[in-house]
């Protein structure tokens, strides 16, 4: 299953990389994910996972086929020069220009988006977007760039946390991707009674139900769960094989 970011096809599920405990295990899981057709990875200046992702892409051998989202600290988005330096560091750590760069958390979103737009025009990122935005901040971000458009929003979105659905209609109308972060509620969602019940009845792991539910909400949604275990990734990827029947969607409504 594929989804789109800025008109380019990416896998419908991406790999998160926050809070990696065992870098070697994460690296091996990432390579395994690439081999299984996942071509979207999320990082940020804050995560310090760019070198692992860069090495996995290099060993995989086709870095241009992997779509990397990164996010910059707000203090690197106040001035163009700081942003350019931060993105140059990202390029060195990743071994390629980031495909998509987001404002990690907004402070003065109009300025931050315009600074990112300048970086895009200098070739330091291929696309731009925002993260952790309210509806009001999102609306400002939509009109802030002068010559380009934001192509993605990365907000928290899970079965338990649905506030970001208020911007779904505009995202769908404009074809802007919604990268759903914390889609498993850090693993806690897998113990939800309704998720567990549907999982039991359909004989699939709870992680697959949590991700399949997000995929069912809209064609612009792209969940980005994090795992550093191949067996957990196998469970997550079962979401791509599950079509939630009406009774299950009703149960989870
Ligand atoms: N923009 C932002 O401000 C922001 C904020 C938060 C997150 N994010 C992004 O979104 C990504 C995902 O969010 P998250 O990492 O915070 O939380 P998450 O994806 O909701 O949950 C990750 C946790 O779930 C566990 N897990 C994964 N698959 C599992 C399975 N099949 N069974 C049991 N446990 C499982 C992982 O452990 P194992 O590794 O042991 O599998 C990990 O502890 C992040 O990594 C990051 O890239 C962005």
Automatic annotation (TrEMBL):
Query: Which species does this protein come from?
Result: Ignicoccus pacificus DSM 13166
Protein's name in the database: Oxidoreductase
Give one Pfam hit by family name.
Answer: Aldo_ket_red
Domain NADP-dependent oxidoreductase residues, every copy: 13-247
The molecular function GO annotations come to:
oxidoreductase activity
């Amino acid at each position: 299953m594929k989804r789109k970011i800025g008109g380019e096809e990416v896998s419908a599920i991406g790999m998160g990389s926050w809070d990696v405990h065992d870098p070697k295990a994460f690296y091996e899981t990432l390579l395994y994910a690439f081999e299984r057709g996942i071509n979207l990875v999320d990082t940020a200046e804050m995560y310090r996972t760019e070198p692992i992702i860069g090495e996995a892409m290099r060993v995989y051998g086709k870095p241009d086929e992997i779509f990397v989202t990164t996010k910059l600290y707000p203090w690197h988005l106040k001035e163009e020069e700081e942003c350019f330096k931060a993105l140059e560091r990202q390029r060195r750590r990743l071994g390629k220009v980031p495909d998509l760069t987001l404002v990690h958390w907004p402070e003065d979103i109009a300025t931050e988006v315009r600074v990112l737009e300048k970086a895009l025009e200098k070739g330091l990122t291929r696309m731009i977007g925002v993260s952790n935005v309210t509806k009001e901040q999102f609306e400002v971000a939509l009109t802030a760039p002068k010559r380009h458009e934001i192509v993605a929003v990365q907000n928290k979105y899970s079965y338990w946390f649905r506030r970001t659905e208020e911007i779904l209609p505009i995202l769908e109308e404009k074809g802007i991707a919604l990268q759903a972060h914390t889609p498993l509620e850090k693993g806690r969602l897998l113990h939800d009674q309704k998720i567990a019940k549907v999982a039991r009845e359909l004989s699939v792991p709870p992680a697959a139900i949590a991700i399949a539910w997000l995929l069912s909400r809209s064609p612009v949604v792209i969940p980005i769960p994090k795992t550093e275990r191949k067996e957990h990734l196998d469970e997550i990827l079962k979401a791509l094989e599950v079509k939630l029947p009406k009774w299950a969607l009703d149960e989870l409504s």
